[in-house]
Design goal:
Blueprint (H helix, E strand, L loop, with lengths): L5 E8 L6 H17 L4 E4 L26 H13 L2 E11 L2 E9 L5 E6 L5 E2 L2 E2 H4 L10 E3 L2 E5 L8 H9 L4 E6 L2 E2 L5 H22 L3 E5 L1 E4 L8 E4 L3 E3 L5 E4 L6 E8 L2 H8 L22
Parallel strand pairs: 1-2, 2-3, 9-10, 10-12
Antiparallel strand pairs: 1-17, 3-4, 4-5, 6-7, 8-9, 11-14, 12-15, 13-14, 15-16
Helix pairs in contact: 4-5
Amino acid sequence: MTVPVKLKVALIQMSCQSDRTANMAHISDGLRAAASQGAQLVLLQELHNTRYFCQSEDAALFDLAEAIPGPSTAELSALAAELRLVIVASLFERRAAGVYHNTAVVLDSDGSLAGKYRKMHIPDDPGYYEKFYFTPGDLGFQPVQTSLGHLGVLVCWDQWYPEAARLMALAGADLLLYPTAIGWDRADSDEEQQRQLDAWQTIQRAHAVANGLPVLVCNRTGCEPDPAGGAGIEFWGSSFIAGPQGEVLARASRDQAQLLLAELDMSRSEKVRRLWPFLRDRRIDEYADLTLRYRDR
């Protein structure tokens, strides 16, 4: 496996409907459009088959989960093989009765299932009751090997943790990818909403800087109602592609479905790491306390 020097990547930012068939049709159209524009790798957003169902706790919604391999991987595998794309998708995985995961899958350009990653950090906040639905991941922070390189796939809440990005980098990831579903509480002020968006962009660009790797972030857009009758979530879109110094190469709008493309110069990671040798200068002999929950004074 040789990483191409020039890699054209795409993100499909979309507003999800309650109809899975409509969502998959939008994804299929987006994949075809991406392939027609020369994309080799396409990242989809978190839990793209349905609306974001974790706004409330409802045991009946476990029926949305599916096996991997299963119907969605079969559909996406066929598209990957036809269009010669590497596709990173995000599914609600039914592993066994009572054991469900928030899982990213990687389909290689020949249609094969290259690997998967189960979301490790699971939030439990108003409007994001994911601990009710998802068992924490148990596959570790292991990049998925594909025909285009080693993909360090992480999922949404993982994006706030520098440890996750670092471990993917240390395991040989060639780039970091984050399928995401994040948005605003409509009760927040405009100033608070802007602070949250800025923080979200900054932390992920920082992962690029600290690890010398490109970062791809694909977020939902649109307003989705709370099935239990709450205010719902306004997903803030703003998907982006950043280079290994955190430079933003492309950014999507906040409120529109969009196919976002950029060409990555994969040779720059080597150049950046030579200039900023953070991995060389890490004091691993002094980091033992990182395994503690908190170091009491």
